[in-house]
Amino acid sequence: MTPDISSAPARERAATAGADRIRQWFARYKILALLLAVALIWLFFTVLTHGAFATPRNLSNLLRQMAISGMLACGMVFVIIAGEIDLSVGSLLGLLGGVAAILDANHRWPIEATIPMVLALGVLAGLFNGWLSTYRRVPSFIVGLGGMLAYRGVLLGITGGSTIAPVSDRIVFLGQGYLPRLAGDALALLLFAVLAFVTARQRSNRRRYDLPVPPLWQDGMKIVGAGVILVAFVAILNSYGGIPVPVLLVLVLLGIFTWVATQTVFGRRIYSVGSNLEATRLSGVDTNRVKLAIFALMGLMCAFAGIVNTARLAAGSPSAGTMGELDAIAACFIGGTSMRGGSGTVYGALIGALVMASLDNGMSMLDVDAYWQMIAKGAILVLAVWIDVVSRTNRR
Amino acid sequence: MAQAEPLLSLKGIVKTFSGVKALDGIDLSVSPGECVGLCGENGAGKSTLMKIVSGVYPHGTWDGEIRWDGAPLKASSVRDTERAGIVIIHQELMLVPELSVAENIFLGNEITLPGGRMNYAAMHQRADELLRGLGIEGINVAQPVMNFGGGHQQLIEIAKALNKQARLLILDEPSSSLTATETRILLDIVRDLKRRGVACIYISHKLDEVQAVCDTVTVIRDGRHVETAPLAAMPPARIVALMVGREITHLFPREPHEIGEVVLQARNVTCFDVTNPRRKRVDDISFEVRRGEILGVAGLVGSGRTELMQAIFGAYPGTSRATVVMEGKTIRVRAPGDAIRAGIGMAPEDRKAHGIVPDLGVGQNITLAVLQRFVKRGSIDAAAELDTIHKAMKQLSVRAAHPLLPIAHLSGGNQQKAVLTRVLLTEPKVLILDEPTRGVDVGAKFEIYKLIFGLAKQGMAIVVVSSELPEVLGLADRVLVIGEGELRGDFVNDGLTQEAILKAAIEPAHRAAAAHPNETASV
Fold it and tell me: Using the beta-carbon criterion (under 8 Å), do A284 and B336 form an inter-chain contact?
């Protein structure tokens, strides 16, 4: 078809075709678009802070901030894919972090006992939430809302409303420590090797079963791009002290959760429960148990995030994790998780968390008033989901 | 009876849905004080026709002519037809359960005081008058509708219709949720309305009701007008013959298959309605299926066929009782997983709501029920899974660009074949297919039929639930007929006719047995 510039309808058609192309591009390369958004945000703040934003020290700090909401987002993305929601995670994070501080600072428990205890409590709380919303059929929104109030109340009760400090050095290491540089380099190398291996195996598998294989240059670009990011990541962090322990934890969680989501039976069931609960049940899957496990996992992530948060602050604070649930939920949606359930990715949610943390960090550096920060974050969340909805519409 | 000009007359109504003629030249007329019975099989076009009359499909989206009260009617919405005096009462009640009786009756036509406030005094008084006019006492019109049973709710719907000054009342399967006593009251009211000069169109599968109130009967079939005659010339047997009246085409690649010993016995299956637990949707039905046998289950929509199958499979959403015996052993079925492990497979009736998982790929949909099989060291062995998917897709000729394509992008026929593949991978001994060819094109239909015969030949016991009688007759070795939650017949498919099935489905068992003792073998 030859484009006829002179006639208005043709021009209109060309314009809609262009819009369609952009839309399709967004739908297909969503992750690339998200990374681009992060880069733009970083560039924006770097210019406005005359480079202060992009210093290794600040980026290291930023990643550590992001690690905590990232842990929550890891759990939350499963909850949302399964078609549920959990609003209690901010308060639960605070409560479990507070318990960790009390056990450590007041009762002098060794770290080997404190951490398993807090993790077990997290799982129990998650199981309780899950049991209420599946077996007792209280909508998870309400269970979460109730938990948000009640867990915060318990926290205020056990701390007496005051900060619990000081916590032991070994706990503090989890939040403020750094990996030795050599370990950082080794980690980067390992990650790169894993990525290359997985991509290669996927290609050969796809070829063997006549599935569409992405062009070689595309996978090549992917590996090279990931390599560049990894090198930059490790170099920057190493130039300031090394990879922070919380960042390492979140990377490990990213690996485990991605593996669960894409490679395990449980992961497949999370998606199918969220996409069509009834069809999954009729296929013989115990859907209540799947949901229960998802909530338990969410509780476990709250425990992780709570411990790391206490460690980062070197104290248990009664206000820790306030609004944490909203950051985690926003991260999932910015990262492309479907509101109806049934689709979403762990890495998307983590990039979403990075977006939120970058906004927080950058605006704080610029001394933007707190009210403007809230307005900006709210607007970005709505904008991101709007773009997602628009790019999705022509796929159906 | 007034034999003046008809109040409503339809001439040559044609309605096409994306190239397919749903209605092809329907004529119908109703005079004041007359009640016309409209009869036809499931899918004959009754509902489409009534949607045209009531303005759901506006003028211009169909061809033909509607004359109302001597002038052409060109309604563009339901509001227009209601203003003219045409009111339809749908099969499913359209009341707001939380609002009061009076609020429901006046919904959309509220009597108001200045400033938009509701004039409750006037509405309550008028609602009381309306209900008393229908001969119903003891309804407190200020109470929410949900406090009343299905029968009273139906009457409240009629009061609502009368409040709109209905001159033509269309009742679509009005007794489907009523008890026998409530139905009698309803029929009395219809007779009373006729005396008051209201015209009625009465749509029902229950021919005894048609006999009781209608003056004229119109039968339609496959979207065409078949016959209109006074009731006296339309005994039930003739109505049934006219409703069916079609040749069975040779769409069925029947293969001889051997019938062996009993595999599944379902005993005393009873299901209670989800919202009204006193009402039985399935009332104490027992049956059995044998190896290599194809058992057809016929019955009108809402007769309890689907509920019966759900109860056996552990998928009925409400309370149910059933004893399920597989190969001589009683099994406990609390969830679909129990049934699948015992060797029962089911492809559900509503493909979109209960069958496909839209966001997953075709392949992942296929392996959904047997995913555990591919686990190697904690994760899914992708190669083994894809291998199975490939073989299964080829075997059932599920056509998709590639197995990772989301199943929502496939045609209805391919989706259905994928769902069947999923069930077959569980290697069932008994396969329950609920409406296996609904929304499926003819080509895929043929493939599914071929598959069914092939499976029976291999010794699988197959239960096929279908609304399409030709399909039941073309496939089944034996046919169960379900009507109003009861087992109305158990026939060997040897010279069995659609008329016999329909008659058994429509007429209560004792009457059918008395009239045709050699056709209906009560169980």
Answer: yes
How far is the CA of B504 from the CAs of B219, B236, B521, in angstroms? 19, 12, 10
pLDDT band at residue B48 under the 50/70/90 scheme: confident
Q: Say whether residue A256 is in contact with chain B using an 8 A CB cutoff.
A: no
Q: A348, A214 in Cβ contact below 8 A?
A: no
Q: Provide the chain B residues 373-412 that lie in CB contact (below 8 A) with chain A.
A: 375, 378-380, 382-383, 386-387, 390, 402-404, 408
Report CB contact under 8 Å: A284, B341.
yes
pTM value > 0.80: no
d(Cα B501, Cα B523) in Å, to the nearest integer?
Answer: 15
Contacts of B402 in chain A (CB under 8 A): 210-212
Ordered strands of the B344-347 beta sheet: B344-347, B430-434, B461-465, B294-298, B478-483, B486-492
Buried b (16+ CB within 10 A) or exposed e, A287-325: bbebbbbbbbbbbbbbbbbbbbbbbbbbbbbbebbeebb
B281, amino acid identity = R
Q: List the one residue out of B399, B497, B489, B476 whose CA is nearest residue B433.
A: B476
Hey, which residues 181-240 in chain A have their CB within 8 Å of chain B?
A: 205, 208-212
Cross-chain residue pair B360–A271, CB shorter than 8 Å:
yes
Does the distance separating the beta carbons of B359 and A343 come in below 8 Å? Answer: yes
Q: How far apart are CA A364 and CA A376, in angstroms?
A: 12
Contact B55, B83 (CB under 8 A): no
Q: Look at chain A and count its residues.
A: 396
A375–chain B nearest CA distance, Å: 34
For every residue of A274-313, DSSP letters joined together read: HH-HHHHHHTT--HHHHHHHHHHHHHHHHHHHHHHHHHHH
pLDDT at A27: 67
Contact between chains at B348 and A268 (C-beta distance less than 8 A): no
d(CA B251, CA B446): 7
Q: Kindly list the residues from chain B whose CB atom is less than 8 angstroms away from the CB atom of residue A275.
A: 357-360
**Contact between B383 and A208 using a beta-carbon 8 Å cutoff:** yes
Residues, chain B:
523
For residues B372 and A290, what is the distance between their CA atoms, to the nearest angstrom?
Answer: 14
CA B338/CA B314 separation, integer angstroms? 8
Instruction: Please say whether the beta carbons of B178 and B207 come within 8 A.
Output: no
Q: Are strands B478-483 and B294-298 parallel, antiparallel or unpaired?
A: parallel
**How far apart (Å, rounded) are the C-alpha atoms in residues A336 and A24?**
15
DSSP string, B67-104: EETTEE---SSHHHHHHHTEEEE-SS----TTSBHHHH
The tens place of each residue's pLDDT in chain A, 396 residues long, gives: 344 444 444 455 555 566 667 766 766 777 888 888 899 999 999 999 999 999 999 999 999 999 999 999 999 999 999 999 999 999 999 999 999 999 999 999 999 999 999 999 999 999 999 999 999 999 999 999 999 999 999 999 999 999 998 999 999 999 999 998 888 889 889 989 998 998 898 888 888 877 888 888 888 888 898 899 889 999 999 888 899 999 999 999 999 999 999 999 999 999 999 999 999 999 999 999 999 999 999 999 999 999 999 999 999 999 999 999 999 999 999 998 988 899 999 999 999 999 999 999 999 999 999 899 999 989 988 988 888 787 765 443
Flag if B336 and A271 touch (Cβ within 8 Å).
Answer: no
Q: Which helix (H) or strand (E) holds B154?
A: helix B150-163
Q: Is B60 on the interface with A (CB under 8 A)?
A: no
Burial track B51-81 (b if 16+ CB lie within 10 A, e otherwise): bbbbbbbeeeebeeebbbeeeebebeebebb
pLDDT single digits (tens) B128-175: 998 888 777 778 899 998 888 767 888 888 888 888 888 999 998 887
Residue A271 near chain B (CB below 8 Å): yes
Sequence-distant (6+) residues with CB within 8 A of A194 are none
